[in-house]
Amino acid sequence: MSILQDILTYNEEFVANKEYEQYQTTKFPNKKLVILSCMDTRLTEMLPRALNLRNGDAKIVKNAGGILTSPFGGIMRSIIVALYELGAQEVAVIGHHGCGMASINPSATIEKMKAAGIEEQTLNVLDYSGLDLHKWLHGFDNVEESVRGSVEIIRHHPLLPKHVPVHGLVIDPETGKLDLVVDGYENLPAASRNE
């Protein structure tokens, strides 16, 4: 059975047995939080459980490495929409130890692309268009610095309200232990702090 067929077969039973009822909530995050984190499979259930989040408590935006690389890309748009349209009031960037983006080798990845049938001409067109694939595929060397960098991009975004705290944390995907990298409350204007 294919992966897709397995999913569809399971889904029929899921819906027929009304298993969805236990997950019903609204589109507004109960804990008023939007999280940027990594797509690592170890975090699928570990991250929400380690943060005491239930279905509906937070908006979770995921990508490779939990890295914000563009202040005007889709990740930042999702954060802005969560803040202005969906009731989020705080942002957390959560990286993790042992992230694959810390060890990615862009040259090796490009070679895998070629082996999968991506033609050299396509790579040349991308290069000519101004996309530096090596830079685009590079992750980070230090997870704490990566988290700080993403926090800074979000915190200084021209559309981010000044009263919104942007936190930075690193989670251990094996134990769920969180390490605080940036306390977003410390960067708020004095009038916005809940002291």
Task: Please give the structural blueprint.
Elements: H1 3-16, E1 33-38, H2 43-50, E2 58-63, H3 74-85, E3 90-96, H4 106-115, H5 120-128, H6 133-137, H7 143-155, E4 166-171, E5 178-182
Parallel strand pairs: 1-2, 1-3, 3-4
Antiparallel strand pairs: 4-5
Which descriptors would you attach to this protein?
single chain, 195 residues, alpha/beta, Beta-carbonic Anhydrase, Chain A, 5-stranded mixed beta sheet, 5 strands, globular, carbonic anhydrase
Question: What's a concise summary of this model?
Answer:
This protein is 36% helix and 15% strand.
Molecular structure report:
It is a single chain. This protein has 7 helices and 5 strands. With 195 residues, the chain is α/β, with parallel strands linked by helices. It has a domain at 32-104 and 139-185: Carbonic anhydrase (Beta-carbonic Anhydrase, Chain A, 3-Layer(aba) Sandwich), CATH 3.40.1050. β1 (33-38), α2 and β2 (58-63) form a beta-alpha-beta unit. The longest helix is centred in the N-terminal third of the chain and has 14 residues, at 3-16. It starts with a helix and ends in a 13-residue tail after the last strand.
